[in-house]
Amino acid sequence: MASLGKRTERTGTHRLYAYGLVQRDYNNDELNADDMINGMPAIPTQFHYDSHYVGIGAAGALTDRLAYGIEAVYEGGHTNSSSFTLDDDGNGTVVPQQRATLGKRLFWRVVLFLARFPAGLRLLQRLRGS
Fold this sequence. Notes:
8% of the residues lie in helices and 59% in strands. The protein has 130 residues and is mainly β. The protein has one domain. The relative contact order is 0.19.
């Protein structure tokens, strides 16, 4: 896994940030029919997962009793498809694996935090830098 870096800027009671992360799978492990799982031959499977993430966000205080955090993360990359399908009875059938594109996904996370108790107030004060 390699980090492309992170950049953080403070403006008053707000902290803005951006980051990038690249993950490469160097795992050469492979299951074959000679491997056993719970006494049954394994379904031949090759493992592979390469992903990358880019994110931006902000956190801070809106008032003395209201903090926020918002973040957007984009994920992309490639993986291997499943090596089997299951029928209605739960029996596995071998299918050829293919290189699959990870769904280009964008995640949003928003958190509003009302500081009405001592631990919450301490967290809010920390976010505000006071």
